[in-house]
């Protein structure tokens, strides 16, 4: 049996230990526990892109970074690791790509995991900047409210790339589009190409903006080189400027393990990024 995603390279026990969960037979409940643990364990960030020494999105490199060092990354890395763990645990897993922004204009620079359990499919997106804490049933209009965060899926027909799924989140009382996922076949090289564009294209958002996000107890925090955004379920979003000299404190608050040299380098790079 072939293993194109190299899932055999995963140290599953070490991954589960990093998350603080035990192996369990595939079920919706076990999937939900694993997704929430993964999202809470690792930051979503583009630190390695800005430092221009990204190790790539192959499973061994992602595993060493996430499981070995407790670091985080962005969607291609999260999905590589999360999907591999699900497969090793016996889940029926398919990887798909999505578009962040206008689905008619945006490139396919997001990666998600779709899991089939019985007769149902579930969107298990563990690698977005503000990922849902649990899987969402793939039915038009399906909603999920985990930890007070409400998300909705909408199925859209009639587009050139076939049926697509729009993920929305409830943002201060209205639905905000997060991303649009298609159902086209995805192979490992597609994640490599998406990562290459995202991490090297001169106008890529990830090359021009520092982004570090994490779900903390009762809130979600996003830190950029300009702002700190705090979101709490059912409460207005709080946005304030990042104070001079504050980035180091925010790295500590979000639990980003960096060596002294890399920490200093990141602070220096962030200070040079364009301001709005």
Automatic annotation (TrEMBL):
Belongs to the arylamine N-acetyltransferase family. It comes from Nocardioides bigeumensis. This is Arylamine N-acetyltransferase. InterPro entries: Arylamine_N-AcTrfase, Papain-like_cys_pep_sf. It comes from the Bacteria. Gene3D superfamilies: Arylamine N-acetyltransferase, Cysteine proteinases.
């Amino acid at each position: 049996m072939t293993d194109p995603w190299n899932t055999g390279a995963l140290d599953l026990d070490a991954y589960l230990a990093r998350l603080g969960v035990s192996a369990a037979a595939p079920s919706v409940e076990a999937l939900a526990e694993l997704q929430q643990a993964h999202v809470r364990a690792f930051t979503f960030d583009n630190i390695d892109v800005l430092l221009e020494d990204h190790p790539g999105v192959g499973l061994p490199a992602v595993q060493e970074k996430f499981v070995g060092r407790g670091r985080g990354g962005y969607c291609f890395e999260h999905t590589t690791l999360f999907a591999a763990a699900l497969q090793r645990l016996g889940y029926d897993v398919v990887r798909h790509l999505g578009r962040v922004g206008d689905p008619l204009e945006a490139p396919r620079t997001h990666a998600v995991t779709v899991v089939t359990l019985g007769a149902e499919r579930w969107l298990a997106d563990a690698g977005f900047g503000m990922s849902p804490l649990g899987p969402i049933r793939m039915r038009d209009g399906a909603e999920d409210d985990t930890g007070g965060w409400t998300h909705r899926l909408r199925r859209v027909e009639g587009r050139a790339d076939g049926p697509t799924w729009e993920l929305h989140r409830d943002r201060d009382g209205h639905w905000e589009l997060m991303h649009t996922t298609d159902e086209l076949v995805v192979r490992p090289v597609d994640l490599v190409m998406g990562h290459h564009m995202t991490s090297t294209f001169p106008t890529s958002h990830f090359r021009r903006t520092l982004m570090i996000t994490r779900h903390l107890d009762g809130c979600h925090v996003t830190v950029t080189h300009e702002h700190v955004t705090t979101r709490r379920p059912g409460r207005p979003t709080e946005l304030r400027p990042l104070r001079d000299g504050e980035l180091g404190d925010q790295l500590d608050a979000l639990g980003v393990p960096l060596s002294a040299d890399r920490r200093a380098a990141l602070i220096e790079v962030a200070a040079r990024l364009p301001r709005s």
